Structures are given as C-alpha cells and as structure tokens.
Amino acid sequence: MPAPARSPASDRKIPASSPRPPVTMVRNGRIPVAERTWSREALEAEDPAMSLRLHARNSRRICERVADLLWAVESAAAADADAAALWADLQEQRRTSMRAYVRALARKTELHEDADTITETMWAMIPALYLRLVRDAGWPPDRFETWLGETFIQLWLP
Predict the structure, then answer these.
(1) What is the DSSP string of 106-120?
(2) What are the distances in angstroms from CA 2 to CA 29, 33, 125?
(3) Number of independent structural domains in the chain
(4) In-domain check, residue 51
C-alpha cells in the first residue's frame, strides 16, 4: 500500500499555536509501529531469544531512518518550546511501545529484571547507542543489530 500523500509544509513545521502537537501530526497518517507486520513479528515470536533478536532488528531499522532526526529534535528541545513538546511526546510514544514489547516478552519467560527496568533500559539505549556506535564509531548497522540482540539476551534472559 503506498504511503499517504504528504504535505511538505506540514512535514517541516509544527504550528506554534499548538502547544503540544497531536499524535496524528507526528505519525503523519502512518500506521503505528506496534501495528506494523515486522513489529508484530517480534511481539509474537514464541522463542524469547528470537523475539529479542527481532526487536534488535526492528530497532536498527527504525534507527536507520530516524536516529539522526531524534537527535536533532532532542537538541532543539533545549532551546525551543515546540521542539521540547514534540520531544516529550516522542519519548512517551517510545516508552509506550517498548513497555508493550517488554510486557509481551515477560509473558513468555522469566526475565532477569522487572519489566519497568527493562523498558527504561531499552528506552535509554535506543537510539543513543546506535548513534554512538554506528554514526560515531563507524560500526556497520548489521554489527550493531547483532550486538544489540545478543546484549539483550545476555542482560535479560535466564
């Protein structure tokens, strides 16, 4: 299915009159991450280790598209109220998505940490570590994906 038509003006600027941009502006009419086929694949994988590897794959794919954009919004948030509101909304969306994933994982197996700790750790790791390791240290994205999946497994699975 082709992506919906995009308005170039609405993609560049969120109206200053809107104190907090509505989610539909952030998503631009696109399917939420948790409802996408590749995301459902990680959520529904029966094997916890495979689920974490798929989550790492998904994180890599997302980071390849938006990690630099997230970094730019975070940087702008320090100086601009609209950017700060957008950053807060994006962070809450990320936490919500990761929380849903971690809860699904916890239903499959015992974990080394509680769901809140794992959620917050994933939230802190992605995209920050992608930017440091891929953009700044020159890792190939495939190496990052493999490392992230294996790190998740070592950290959280029995």
Answers:
(1) HTTS--SS-HHHHHH
(2) 12, 16, 32
(3) 1
(4) yes
Spell out where 2-155 has E strands. none
In whole angstroms, give the CA distance from residue 71 to residue 10.
Answer: 20
Most distant CA pair in the chain: distance in Å? 50
Q: Does residue 14 contact residue 86 with C-beta atoms inside 8 Å?
A: yes
Range of the domain at 71: 46-156
pLDDT reported for residue 29: 61
In sign, the C-alpha dihedral spanning 151, 138, 78, 10 is negative
Residue 88 lies in a domain: yes
Does residue 34 fall inside a structural domain? no
Of 5, 115, 129, 110, give the one whose Cα is nearest residue 67. Answer: 129
Task: Note down pLDDT in tens along the chain; length 158 residues.
Answer: 444 444 343 343 333 433 433 333 344 566 777 777 888 899 899 999 999 999 999 999 999 999 999 999 999 999 999 999 999 999 998 999 899 999 999 999 999 999 999 999 999 999 999 999 999 999 999 999 999 999 999 999 99
Q: Which of 65, 122, 75 has its CA nearest to residue 94? A: 122
> Does residue 23 fall inside a structural domain?
no
